[in-house]
Protein 1
Amino acid sequence: MTRDQLFEQIRKKHSFLCVGLDTEADRLPEHLNHGEYPLFEFNRQIIDATHSLAIAYKPNVAFYECAGTPGWKQLELTVAYIRDRYPDILVIADAKRGDIGNTTRKYAETFFRHMSCDAVTVAPYMGSDSVLPFLEYPGKWVILLALTSNQGADDFQLLHINRGQRLFEIILEKSSSWGSPDNMMYVVGATRASMLVKVREIIPDHFLLIPGIGAQGGDLREVADYGLNSRCGLIVNSSRAIIYADSTKRFAEAARARAGEVQREMEGILRDKGLGTISSVF
Amino acid sequence: MTRDQLFEQIRKKHSFLCVGLDTEADRLPEHLNHGEYPLFEFNRQIIDATHSLAIAYKPNVAFYECAGTPGWKQLELTVAYIRDRYPDILVIADAKRGDIGNTTRKYAETFFRHMSCDAVTVAPYMGSDSVLPFLEYPGKWVILLALTSNQGADDFQLLHINRGQRLFEIILEKSSSWGSPDNMMYVVGATRASMLVKVREIIPDHFLLIPGIGAQGGDLREVADYGLNSRCGLIVNSSRAIIYADSTKRFAEAARARAGEVQREMEGILRDKGLGTISSVF
């Protein structure tokens, strides 16, 4: 998926919402626990209920691996379902992979060729050969961890390096030369919206994937104030707050209602920033 | 597996060799390509041929994911086979995971509970909550990336931080307080043996997992000179040089021969360092 196609979707849906599919076997509504593929069935209903409000889905690979071979199968089914039914939607494998070149090539095959995901999250610690093999796939994206939303982010990401820059800034600066805003995005935690100013100084044009809205407590308006660029440039994720909005048979309807609330807030933001109509941006 | 049990194996086998199971569908000997589980069948024969020479096996998860659901199944079969037949051998899931706490708990369930691996490799970028949930499993190990053997390692791992230390040193120092030498090890690239001096200043007691012997070009004797401690403290990995020593029906025999060469070199080193006999170490 190209950057233009992504922006086209944002304009069409008045949304920059990503729904995180952190689907756990023990949080499924009771009535789904009897089929062969309960995780997939849950996802399918969530996807059917929210696809007009979201521009991306982000299955968290850990939650599928944790269910063993049947879990991996249901991850594949979920990605294939989105690909088949809603081909315009960005599918992000939230895998946070990062390894030497020959291993990275395997991960790229896994997520891009075998599963047809559009994007994969990648950890930067092992440097360029953790990233470059992914970029050999046209139309696919690396979403590199820059500044995460968890407590442990403080341990290393904010360390000051010799020239006064912090580690995440060095990573943004260096890694942005490996690709371009057309094939790389960055993860920037929403609980640190003020740091988005610094991020936007270094990478004004890249899309940012913002986790941490909802269960992790980020503020959408603040994120938009500091993170939006002229082509939106933001994908904001919400996982648990949407997919677990209700634990009964009405879970998908409740997820749609919750996603709708977020989408309407996003629509207002896009309008306020002059990104709300087609004529204002082209 | 405890540190004592690991050392016991080293003494018994006169070896600190880990065989990396980077098993690729398109590098299998022709005659294995017809069964239902060719990756597993290859691994099974490699394991049967080398188990008396190796103290650890390290399946690289990427190579199994890349084969989709059947690949994941064969990873599970491989781990279960080692667990069942050779329970004294350390099984390392080379997965390089790293995520927020609730996701890390899923990865820990996957590799420690579902698959019964002894250890998992973890990336440090997201900090303490990427590591701590793994340490809640008694007898299990986190092997944290410190200094890797690939070209991209230079991009960030060697950055100088304010007090003059490099990033990998800060990571060693900080993370070593999260666990102990009884539940944490570190990845240190063998192609940088001289840096082992610095590593040993910071963590004298931890086991180090050294990749890069063989295909990546590290030198075993140099690694031992700088990395050994009084309880060995090294696990040296070789993957491709052993498992792909031959591509015919004699592949397992050839792998055993190659593993034997490495083991004999290790035996000599252990003897030279006074770690070769039981009486010398207790």
Protein 2
Amino acid sequence: MEGMLEEGMGGSQHHDHNNPCVEIAMEIHKVETPPKRSSLQKLKNRLKETFFPDDPLRQFKGQSCKQKWLLGFQYIFPILQWGPHYNLNLLKSDVVSGLTIASLAIPQGISYAKLANLPPIVGLYSSFVPPLVYAVLGSSRDLAVGPVSIASLLMGSMLRQEVSPTLDPILFLQLAFTSTFFAGLFQASLGFLRLGFIIDFLSKATLIGFMAGAAIIVSLQQLKALLGITHFTKEMGLVPVMSSIFHNTKEWSWQTILMGFCFLVFLLVTRHISIKKPKLFWVSAGAPLLSVVLSTIIVFFSKAQDHGISVIGKLEQGLNPPSWNMLHFHGSHIGLVLKTGLITGIISLTEGIAVGRTFAALKNYQVDGNKEMIAIGVMNVVGSTTSCYVTTGAFSRSAVNHNAGAKTAVSNIIMAVTVMVTLLFLMPLFRYTPNLVLGAIIVTAVIGLIDIPAAYQIWKVDKFDFVVLLCAFFGVIFISVQEGLALAVGISIFKMVLQMTRPKTVMLGNIPGTDIFRNKHQYKDAVSIPGFLILSIQAPISFANSNYLNERVLRWIQDYEEEEETKRHSDLRFVILDLAAVSAIDTNGVTFFQELRRVLEKKGVELVLVNPVGEVMEKLQKAGGANDLLQPNNLYLTVGEAVSSLYSSMKVVSSSQGNEL
Amino acid sequence: MEGMLEEGMGGSQHHDHNNPCVEIAMEIHKVETPPKRSSLQKLKNRLKETFFPDDPLRQFKGQSCKQKWLLGFQYIFPILQWGPHYNLNLLKSDVVSGLTIASLAIPQGISYAKLANLPPIVGLYSSFVPPLVYAVLGSSRDLAVGPVSIASLLMGSMLRQEVSPTLDPILFLQLAFTSTFFAGLFQASLGFLRLGFIIDFLSKATLIGFMAGAAIIVSLQQLKALLGITHFTKEMGLVPVMSSIFHNTKEWSWQTILMGFCFLVFLLVTRHISIKKPKLFWVSAGAPLLSVVLSTIIVFFSKAQDHGISVIGKLEQGLNPPSWNMLHFHGSHIGLVLKTGLITGIISLTEGIAVGRTFAALKNYQVDGNKEMIAIGVMNVVGSTTSCYVTTGAFSRSAVNHNAGAKTAVSNIIMAVTVMVTLLFLMPLFRYTPNLVLGAIIVTAVIGLIDIPAAYQIWKVDKFDFVVLLCAFFGVIFISVQEGLALAVGISIFKMVLQMTRPKTVMLGNIPGTDIFRNKHQYKDAVSIPGFLILSIQAPISFANSNYLNERVLRWIQDYEEEEETKRHSDLRFVILDLAAVSAIDTNGVTFFQELRRVLEKKGVELVLVNPVGEVMEKLQKAGGANDLLQPNNLYLTVGEAVSSLYSSMKVVSSSQGNEL
């Protein structure tokens, strides 16, 4: 053990073992200031880090003019990047995965459109045009584009606040298209203005809570179809839906319940199989279409629609009609439409980007968040002019796409073509499809959004994040979908601000046998050096915390002085602040140092700064009165050097005092 | 030079000078986890740091029960602390300073009440009761309590939005008292709930800009009295006031302008003398009262009130009438009253606390911010029931108090007694006091709020803070007092959030001859170690920045790889993240590490963590899947140890590979 200590650090080997570090003769290194840059350069740098952290223009550097044009086109249309190298092998994989997701997209499209209170066919329209647009503009290879449950729910419930989809279906449809237009415009602007980081404010905890809450709300809505209730509440909350269900028990239809239950069990079992064995992805992928076909045949031959089982009814045949003449940019509902566009836009964007990033990380390629936003945004703007409502990359369908071996965005094209064929020729077949099977499909799809293991993981790792999760969850269930989300985001940001207001300060001690200083609370072996109080401040010092830090440092000093009285060790001579973790200061931060120094001087204690980063050095230098803070004997590169240098000077002083006596 | 390098660090002295650090045989120290604490303990600790950073109950520890009661009473009524030791010497100082600030308080009280559109006598009432309350409850020895310019301006301008002080003076007065009541209630609640840190959000830059803007707005309002205009605009902004002045040139009265100009020059000269020679504080302290007396005598004998010089007029005699029956807690103006109370409350609180802290620091005693808030709040609640409007510790008067040698809050009592004598016997004397002299007194008082040297200092130190300052300044001048303030606070918080979203990552290099690693940009000598990319992340990793950090780290790696191609040095083998400055992580932060590790693994690069703080260690441990991150060969105490250990293992691998070939 002794030997190890000796070996630890060189210099004078015969050091005092009580204060192993402080006796080591050490070379003192200078704290340097970074090279001077003008304010303009700094601003440029700051703006670049804020808006272009991924440096998208990197590839253009040092290329010829022609090459730059080509790269530019490829940048805007990623299809030009991978298109030329496309081959038959890739096509085979893409056809298989494209047909697989089409068999999911058709029943889900119809179901989600009903969830948004829109005509079922709009769901199919939305699975035709947007995937084609995305195939040209998008950079993810796995994203399966189409309507999704949560955005459908949000749009349906928000628009229903002002317009009834049953009493005024045309106006409702117009508002839905207009909201989609604004959602797309908003998404594309976020990408274009490089403000994509806004969606980062939806933390993991927020999203898990929100998704779970939304899944429950969506599932509750399906009870209308699954129980066969005709007079169902128009509200979304848990309380009104439950009371509506139990006040209308007379309307429950046993035929509907029986048939719905069977299909629900079938779908859940197939889902379970595919989760257990990902190779059998086609079991759950094919089940919805099979259920639709089966249930339609049953209804058709048993004439069950006359026995209380409600069916979709007649659907029009043909491709998307144009809808730009249905966009409303004025009138009394413009506020609602803007709000709906904003919220569904940001939520569907979050899902799309998260899905894209997840699969890109799995296959080890990069998706550019801001470019994806432009692609999704343009897709929705185009969609809104061709009778589509809001679409994005759906998580469940993208997972199936990935498992089915999709290689490029061509799988989206295959899916779109399949949907086109359906729209052109197969629409009459859906006439007798019962609503209950759509309900069962939605419930099966959204149940995967309730991620209990992830919630448990959050509970284990971070209790505060779990509180955020609960707020989002209960907010969505009991208040409303959008307010629950806002609540959770608000709390997350509040926590962040609070963290800035109350940064950590920890006391450092010397790890015996080294010149390393670490948190005494974390490292049990770390010892204090008598006469020294060594603190590490772990946040930028700004207006929001300079007063707190002042109080907190003074409390550390009081603690030291009280301990001093009881343990009778030497007087406090130096307060050393380790500034390695202080990444920035503002003018209040500069004042903090000046005032602290003044207060300490009155107590006869010296303030020593260790390892300030470039920005902090610069600002302290610029603040004239703080110059004293940056004297060589108040400024060191490491805590070890500071302690060793000051400790020896202390001994010189005390020994010379001894001589005088 | 060679010698210095050799001396730097011990161990094996014969190291390779190209990579001075990495060859040093080093002892490897373990990264420890802090002792386990339950979530409840952590929560308790967090709450304590948030609400009781100053540990106010510290003095009660280990005292007898009787002693605790005594200390408790002394805590609530600081007068019990210093009262028993009060002596004649202290009294002498306090009488001198009390009379000095009274001679300022009387003319300023009348002037500020007019600024708030209230009857002048309310200004005197407000200089009588609140100082007495503060003397009992307050813990500052220098604060001179009474009405202040900015709070008066705010209250007057906000209430005037709904009620005219000329058309409905009684209602206006009632609303002023009710606002004062709410201001006091809000101030006391902030202190009681220990939310005092809310006022920290008014940064130094915000306050300097705001004060300067408000001073200009206040001075512009005085042009009414100084030019003798009768039809003056009711608005506060620069533009309407200037146009009102130049559209009413016919109303300008040369007698008023001449007299006003003389007194203004006189007051400014005396102010200048006192600034140059602080010992002559009584020159500027006595000048306002002298001006009032002189101007009153001139008007009385020259009958100037008949020649276009407006005078205060008749004032009632007698002490404060009760006003609790004038408080309105319902009715149509309740929203306005609450808003006014909130804003004037927070602004006057900020001034009072800042003044208290400034003088406490000068005389080296402590004021407890939250206790002061309760004192100021109670003072305003009591004031609102005794015909006083909002009061606080005024900066200019407190400075005079301090210079005049005030020792305790008794100087406030002396001032209050002097004001009482004035109210009882001297009120008729003010009948002929011209309004112009009040205007001159206000202009002289507020001109000190324009602190150009401080603004220049901010410009020098922090350009962004200067932008905040300008926003506050121009917001106040061109939009409105409260919106200018809100704008500046909003921008400050936005900057803070942006800083969290885009934390700094810097590349570290080895300082030759040591095992110290520092920012390569700041330390020109620092050298990279081939095969290693060493980054320091300088902020807590949270949902707001985990995506950015991921992108940023990957960009560092790309940069390394590009450099590799051109400079042909060795392949990237290790990415070392120095986590010393990562003071906290949340669940998104845990995911960041897991994902980064996965991406790096695919590139054949190892992720190494250095010096995680306790909380980060704990969370990474709890997140099961992250366990691999905390293997001994992926986790080191210092960058030096990590590099030296990994470098030697690298050499072992390459040499054994060499043997195999």
Protein 3
Amino acid sequence: MSPLTPQDSDFESRIRQSFSRQGAMTTLGAELTDVKPGRVVIELRHHEALTQHHGYLHAGMLTTIVDNACGYAASSLMAADSEVVTVEFKVNFIAPAKAPRYRAVGSIVRAGRTLTVCSGEVLALTAEGEQPVATMLATMMAVSP
Amino acid sequence: MSPLTPQDSDFESRIRQSFSRQGAMTTLGAELTDVKPGRVVIELRHHEALTQHHGYLHAGMLTTIVDNACGYAASSLMAADSEVVTVEFKVNFIAPAKAPRYRAVGSIVRAGRTLTVCSGEVLALTAEGEQPVATMLATMMAVSP
Amino acid sequence: MSPLTPQDSDFESRIRQSFSRQGAMTTLGAELTDVKPGRVVIELRHHEALTQHHGYLHAGMLTTIVDNACGYAASSLMAADSEVVTVEFKVNFIAPAKAPRYRAVGSIVRAGRTLTVCSGEVLALTAEGEQPVATMLATMMAVSP
Amino acid sequence: MSPLTPQDSDFESRIRQSFSRQGAMTTLGAELTDVKPGRVVIELRHHEALTQHHGYLHAGMLTTIVDNACGYAASSLMAADSEVVTVEFKVNFIAPAKAPRYRAVGSIVRAGRTLTVCSGEVLALTAEGEQPVATMLATMMAVSP
């Protein structure tokens, strides 16, 4: 068995339903573009309503989408009836975020029974290519209902 | 001279103007309630548009306001013509966030010439009192224009 | 019941025995100077054998003692038969460490059933007083045997 | 010019000399096994003198070698007369460390003029292969003398 084998065959629709219930994702206009075992991608268009005082995307908005990407990456391998909560994360902001679109990728570093460690990256997507703007290291927890 | 003496007498209006230019703060409905040298407070009302899938305030939204509180706390002691940018932060989420209102407090741990280390806290404000829901340790940087 | 009430009356001797079994603490010459519910203090004398290339105490040595202070602070409130393990920590180094002696203080921010969040501080102790040199935010976990 | 081009041809000997002046590295018995532009490897043999109370390598010792690997990775691209200091790091401990030998690898995520972001990993080396035991995300700073 691969270390990235989900416990339920329905993990993608489970995650897509959860995403659609997040008021914050609707407010940001974020899209859940890819859901694989242990790896989830969320994209976001740049919008003035999400900026800091110089017109860059706010660090908190970058954090919001990559936190979700990491959380759902962890969730993809958890039991269908458990919930994922963010224990903590650390984010480094490595370049100003001013691009038409952003892609947050969350990946599992190590999945444990209770805790899952994830790494995340946010890329700025421009006509010239992609550039990393933020990198995350996060701890997610499975909580039984 | 106190270690918390601003370099400009006008630091509060400088910070309030910067805050008012942040599209993200308008979108969230956040308020800059207190600006002191080395300590800044931002408050936010709970709103469904800012929640995750269980109706709690999204971790990214908590992070957004406490990042700003820490950034402006650092900025309060910086030269008026420099800009503050978030180098990195780490946040622990210590209780579910479901309260009518939240208060983010950012404080300086150590102000350096280039880098300032800040600690932040988000409190849930209820009729029964306040409860910490998140704690941040952040590194801010002064950038010359 | 206070939130800082240990589950066993014998927590101090339990922690002191654990400390004495740590080869690393003997190698560093660290001393467990104070054990209170939710707050533990470890001290260390400066020694050339623990320095980086400029004669400052190595960041890893500061981290080692404050990780232990935080871990034992968490352990003080855990069940006597559980083990504490460090899930993760973040440390900011805020001043060069060159003093005759250092004091690491670990304190509980929030004690949970499985996870405990701690904050730690390392102070440089000199004839003139104490100065913070490092600050930690850590997540500790109780593991059943 | 590659983004990983050192500013001085002599970066390896400069780093090796710095490493040899670290009292802490001698005490731990750590070896600087590989120095490439933007990537540095340090190895350490398991020893009882470096353990916590269950005989695992102490989290602080893992941190010490991976902090150095990251710091020297950053230093490899810095000006020969500048010094590298650790601003902060975060480490997740993802498996117990009980192996004959450990390898810490530090790599540059993004090199800036003042700040360099690095990622680090510690692997446990056994007869069966390598297993990650810790992962670091760190911020390093170039300081002019």
Protein 4
Amino acid sequence: MLDRLCIIGVGLIGGSVALAARSKGLAREIVGVDRDPGTLRQAKALGAIDVGFQTAAEGVYKADGVVIATPVGKVQAVFEALAPVWSTQAFYTDVGSTKTNVVRAAEHVFGKMPANFVPAHPIAGRELSGVEAALGDLFESKRLILTPVPETDVRMLERVRGFWQALGAEVHDMSVTHHDHVLAATSHLPHVVAYALTHLLGRKDEKDEIFQYAAGGFKDFTRIASSDADMWADICLANAAEITALLRRFEGELHDFGHLLEGGDRSAILHYFAEARSARQRFLDRYRDTS
Amino acid sequence: MLDRLCIIGVGLIGGSVALAARSKGLAREIVGVDRDPGTLRQAKALGAIDVGFQTAAEGVYKADGVVIATPVGKVQAVFEALAPVWSTQAFYTDVGSTKTNVVRAAEHVFGKMPANFVPAHPIAGRELSGVEAALGDLFESKRLILTPVPETDVRMLERVRGFWQALGAEVHDMSVTHHDHVLAATSHLPHVVAYALTHLLGRKDEKDEIFQYAAGGFKDFTRIASSDADMWADICLANAAEITALLRRFEGELHDFGHLLEGGDRSAILHYFAEARSARQRFLDRYRDTS
């Protein structure tokens, strides 16, 4: 059990870490750090944190576990705030959806990756944001990727692994670059595509009022375009190279499908759709394992 | 009340028409037509139809209302089967997701659009298919588009409107070409994009096993890629010109976004995402009206 768990950034994910740690009894005291005092009040009212501070340096005082749960664009500033008060005894982990940029930020601030910072990415989220959307079971049976680096202390790695497992997550290890490559495909590209489609159709709706003739499938398809725009701007910039490469491939995919359609070859189109359908079935079979 | 309602094609939509007509007491007798005797048995067992036939000519005997609910690719063959037994007293309607091809097929078979055939498209569906997925309330408070043509008899138009309204639908009128233009955007393009994305990532999964690291958002986003491949091949071919034009625009949209990303202009990316998010909110506000 931790004496003092500090969560920096008490939004959807940070708040959910707090609620989960609370309900699993993982920490004697939970401290929240957020620049917004209203968020800290709300987190206290929800029972997520015991006490709140507006600066990371205050919040981490005597903490033996620290979770950085700010948007990925803010991580470097958090490292800068933590550097003067960095403890070699505590473990540090984060929740960023991109990992190369987090590791680079740490290397930039500390000169090299601190041995007790273990980057993490819980594959869990909601299209809602803010501590009011936090759930104590958000990580339950969800996959979580740890991306240790050569500098990572093995005991710290195991402590962080144990922490996330205790929150209910199924923990996998992966290299930093492989993480960003995989997540560009499974998460970042789909978000960009959903945003782009909704953007295109939104302009069409202004002219033609098409949205009133959209069905439930459209609602599901575009749900992720309701994700937090600020957070996703950071994620896209942090993983821009991987996302751009995949975007080019996807443009090619659409272009090829357009040719199939213009060619009017029904059996080729049917085959294409059937392949996609069976790929999704394969995804569902795996997804069901943990959800 | 109808004496005899005949439903040609007893799948998800045809079966739902039957169940809804039954529960609303719209017909003394409901006849199903399907080439598959197993489907007819199942439809009878579900209480959707009273009697089943394997040919349209048998099924429409003495029917005063006929709903053509086969996949859009089969509509011309249905018209050909109905031509020798066409009644001028009954109303005919269909449920096709594309309308230009249905009207063309009717013109081809009958020389001109029959005055008592009123094309319809209920904006309702599920990613499941088959009569076993049919729901008696599938059309309840859902929009339904009628695309009458100059040849359409006004009294028949009103009878068909009344029929669909009695099934619970909110009926709108639209021209044939405007329907296909609007639905290409709200339904056909999203389906093609979901199929194409799932197709691309499916191949990536074969190599890199990425699907196990996909989250709930991916599940929603790709749900429509589990739609019936056969039906969607027909829809895409029937509305190929509109879909291809939109695909080209969407490729351009992705290309432009790729430039934004490469340029690294955070405020432009944020603005782009925020616009998409507010467009989706506008969609949800309208969608909530009827769902």
